Amino acid sequence: MANGASELNWDDIRAKAIAGQRPPEWPTDVRAISIEGLSLFGLDSRYQLHFDGKRLLIEKRLDLTWWQTLLAAMASVSALIIAAIEVLRFCGYGAS
Q1: In a structure prediction context, what are the per-residue pLDDT tens digits for the chain, which is 96 residues long?
Q2: What are phi and psi of 28, to 5 degrees?
Q3: CA angle, corner 82, sides to 96 and 67, nearest 5?
Q4: Count of Cβ atoms closer than 10 Å to residue 53 Cβ
Q5: Cβ–Cβ contacts within 10 Å for residue 69, how many?
Q6: Is 18 helix (H, G, I), strand (E, B) or coil?
Q7: pTM of the predicted model, to two decimals?
Q8: DSSP per-residue letters across 23-70
Q9: Residue 2's Cα: distance from chain center in Å?
């Protein structure tokens, strides 16, 4: 490589990607990433995260309780009713 830098051995980095120890409170199937394993993370031109060339899917789910869902539905219906009333008023219906 240019400037005297040595070529990385990606197979060696992949073999050492997992650290030997992990915090005991973590789930048993979760393992720590080693310092060498950090080299496998990358960003594309849109700053989306990749690990070993594969894009990572990061989700943020919104889980509402039943009453929050009910309130959201009631608010939506109310907004639609008010919008319909305002359209009818604009069209001249219900004018005094």
Answers
A1: 455 456 888 888 888 888 888 889 989 888 898 998 999 999 999 989 999 999 999 888 889 999 999 999 999 999 999 999 999 999 988 765
A2: -65, -25
A3: 150
A4: 8
A5: 11
A6: strand
A7: 0.50
A8: -TTS-TT--PBPTGGGGGEEE-TT--EEETTEEPP--------HHHHH
A9: 37
Q: What are the contacts of 11-20 at 24+ separation with CB within 8 A?
A: 12/36, 13/37, 13/39, 13/40, 14/40, 14/52, 17/52
Are 51 and 41 in contact by the 8 Å Cβ rule? The answer is yes
Q: Which two tokens stand for residue 8?
A: 């990385």
Tell me which amino acid residue 48 is: Q
19: tokens are: 């650290």
CB atoms within 10 A of CB 32: 12
Name the residue with tokens 């990607």.
17
